[in-house]
Specification:
It is built from four helices and three strands. By secondary structure, it is mainly alpha-helical. The protein folds into two domains: about 70 residues, Double Stranded RNA Binding Domain (2-Layer Sandwich); about 45 residues. Strands 1-2-3 form a three-stranded antiparallel β-sheet, covered by helices on one side. Helix 1 crosses helix 2. The longest helix has 21 residues. The termini are far apart.
Length: about 140
Amino acid sequence: MRTKMEPMDLKQSLKATILRKAKKIAGEYRITIERNERLGFIGSSVELPTVFADAKTPEQCYKATQEALMVAVSTMIERGQRPPQPASAKKRYEQVNVRLTSEEKILLSNVASSLGFKGISDFIRNAALNRVLSGR
């Protein structure tokens, strides 16, 4: 016999569903781990380069990075945003050219670097796609 779900039960159920979906998505992200003198190891991902975790061993760092990515992805889902697809999901064959002034290039390069992007192209692509996919 089925009983009526209380609002808290429904909220817990929705959260569990989102967490499962986020874990599956984040589980396919490419994680990079680098040694750090002060922290031991720092992990991040190609898909969400601004999400970091640290730990004393590579194994602990990997697990902590997976957890941080899952939290970031579940937050995106809860906010109605679309998390990035795993880097391995799509090969990029198309190219576009963008002309910039020297000052614009320096500005964008500095911002890209400070946010953890590997280069200006990844930053521009990520910023543009986030803008388009968020509907703004």
